[in-house]
Amino acid sequence: MHVLAERRAGRWSDLGTRVLSALVLAPVALVCVWMGGIAFGVIVAAVTLGLAMEWLGLCRRTGWAPLCAMGLGYIALAAAALLWLRHDAAAGRADVLFLLLVVWAGDIGAYLVGRWIGGPRLAPSISPGKTWSGAAGGLVAAVAAGLAAAHVLSDSASWRAVVVAAVLGVVAQSGDLLESFVKRRLEVKDSGSLIPGHGGLFDRLDGVLAAAPVAALLALTQGRGVVLWQ
After folding, report:
1. Which stretches of the chain drop beneath a pLDDT of 70?
2. Number of separate helices (H) and strands (E) present in the chain
3. What is the 3-state secondary structure (H, E, C) of 149-169?
4. How far is the C-alpha of 219 from the C-alpha of 167, rounded, in Å?
5. 63 lies in a domain?
6. Which of 11, 90, 93, 173 lies 20 to 30 Å from 35, alpha-carbon distance?
7. Count of structural domains within the chain
């Protein structure tokens, strides 16, 4: 029983650090999204530069130029998608907030449910720590956050908000798995050590990097001035 209790406690050993990091970083990001303009451009540029430097550092382990170029292109695409989304004067703020809240909620839900329930591994050859229960919990949390965000941001929480949040939630989790696959191939645990409890910028933003271009594509099909879920 004592060993079991220690194992359960170990599951949550990084929770406090993760919460403190989120409490510091999330408000800064949300304020910049809310303000838009130069503030948002500066934070996107700073994060993009940090991601690029982090990726170049990882690339030194392989020396394979095509992989390095693909990673930089992946970062640039996500940055361009975020800037394009926020530039919409009518729907940009709501769209980016919706995207971030859905991805963040999915991350939190996957972490909490996966650590609490555990169970069968989702992709043991890629990321041994991820479970099917965590993936399900993350998807449910993403959809719930999407419904809440849609209601608050536009007073129109509908089935479309559920569908869009679910799509972004699945894509964000796929981005997480992609990053885990890359780290496994490069034989590193974390992409960096910049963010206490999370690792590097890639470790924190893998879901946003994957979901941002999809959100931009959805916004393009909707037309400028129309929020993602309408």
Report:
1. 1-18, 63, 157, 190-199
2. 8, 2
3. HHHHHHCCCCHHHHHHHHHHH
4. 13
5. yes
6. 173
7. 1
